[in-house]
Input
Amino acid sequence: MISTLRSWFRPAWPHAFIAGVVALQLLLPLHYYLVRHDEHDERFAWRMFSSTRSLTCDVELRVDDRPIELGREFHDAWIAIARRGRRAVIEAMAARLCKQHPGSTVTAFLTCKPVRGEPYSVGGFDLCTIPRL
Amino acid sequence: MAKRTRSQQRRPGPGPAVPAASPAATASTAPAPAAARPPVRAAALPTATRGRFWLDFELSWASWALFRLCFFGLHAIDAVLQLAHAPRYGAGGFNVPQLPLPLLPAPDRTGMSFVYGLLAIAFALCAVGVAVRVLLPLAAALYAYAYFVSQLDSYQHHYLMCLVLFLLCFVPTAPTSVGADGRRWLRSWALRLVLVQLAIVYLWAAVAKVDPAWLDGKLLASQVQPGRMRSLIDGLGFGAVAVLVLATEVALAATIWHRRLWFVAAPLGVGLHLGIELIDLDIGLFSYYMIASYLLVVPGAPAEAALRFGRRLVAPLARVPAGTALAVTAAALIAGVIHVLRHPLPLARAALVGLALVAGAALAARRGGARAIAGRLGAGALAFASMAAVLATTDVAADHFRTWGGASRRMGLPSERAAYQGLLAVDPRSEYAHFYLGQLDVKAGALDAARAHFADGQRVAPTRVRCYLAGANLEAGGGDRAAAMATLERGLAAVPGDPELLQRLAALRGAGG
Output
């Protein structure tokens, strides 16, 4: 029984595997273009040297309207990623501050400057109650 | 995972393929003896394009061996270079993973140092063909952990390398056939899939560049550093070069996976990645990885020549008596392990696990006799030596401790002192470490220790004024105005006319009436 199953699957498995890998790699980047909530997050989309990568954002986090010194709370490498506008990281930073300051409001303000076009702002609301930017 | 050599049914081609090596053979073994070769095919040319697209993809063993040496060798070096970044993982207890994988252990400095250290050893062993069947899946898993555990790794090519390493696990570890001329061949659908994967990357990279900011050259202009390459591109026009890059990526997507078009893909791809390297972007070893990948698509003849040259180079080693070879390689391995164990970076666990891997590989080769064991031990010694060489010739270790110390200071973490002490262990002439250790000692009230650090800082970097100023402040704070003024005067002798030293000296003289 097992050997019969093996004989069925042996010739098929590389093809199924190959088809899966190719399909996944062809389709996964589409997630960025069609579905992804954060256009600043280009992971898994093979967008090398893209205009989004050149974008810079001013990031400010406030607890009860008092600005937080980001460098005292988070490693410089995380701040650099936040300055690329990656929302998941900023949301995680805010979540951490919410945990550290229960009952407080934590607000993120991003002002992003793209290579082309006008600067735009993101955030400005309490991320402890609405945790997604 | 990858199968060892086994006989495979060939599709129509110039001749029948034959199994090249016995089931016990591995990639690191010598070619199958001629007497053991059954009938061979009439011509030595690859036949993959005439057979099944995936299953009959074939490459000369020499091309694969050369690719393996360069590709995994680069990975071994890159893993050591990544040690500089290990301290940022888990700093302050904060991390955001690439994917929500709660079962992955949270990263920290010592854990990531272990991963990178072990990767360096495993990749170096893979590069020379030792225990590839076991080590490559292990390395692929560790590499995937290092990438997916944190969004701190934002290099897209590390994601690409995760995929490529995973696919390479399915490549057989020994030749699958031998030609009439004795050349060995490797048949693997996984290698075809690697090339298709690269084509997909080029395709999507080109799609991302269909963007006005790229097409008008503005984006390219914003990314190219000043220098000769910038002048060259400026001469051609940034817009024209941007369109050329896009066209090249489309061409590579269409050609890299197709053997008959490799004569187009190889020069285009190598040229593109050399150009990218020359414009000095912060992309780590990406260009080198890609150039190494093109070894899969260059004709087999140069690779055969390189392999023959390599064999000639190591031929004298075959004349060394087996016992001597065993003793020398074992001694070299032990020396390498001790060197890494004693290094200030947290590499002890990686060194011990790496040693266990080498010992396992040597044990597995025991049926080949003392010379086979010596070969495995020699490869292990090479792995440890290459790690030690990269550490000795780069600032990786110093950067590791400097960034750890800096982040600890800014974030007020208790690890600050350990970081500076580590920096001093790596670089006893670090004025930076002496200055901040002195500051920590002042805060802790250990004034003699602080005084000693400031004096050492002045000695190792006589033209940097901050240790003179800190030393003077320490003496003045203790009420010894004369000693403070003497410190500043020493500074002025080393840095005549320095305004900060002059100002502080004037203030002290004024305070003294």
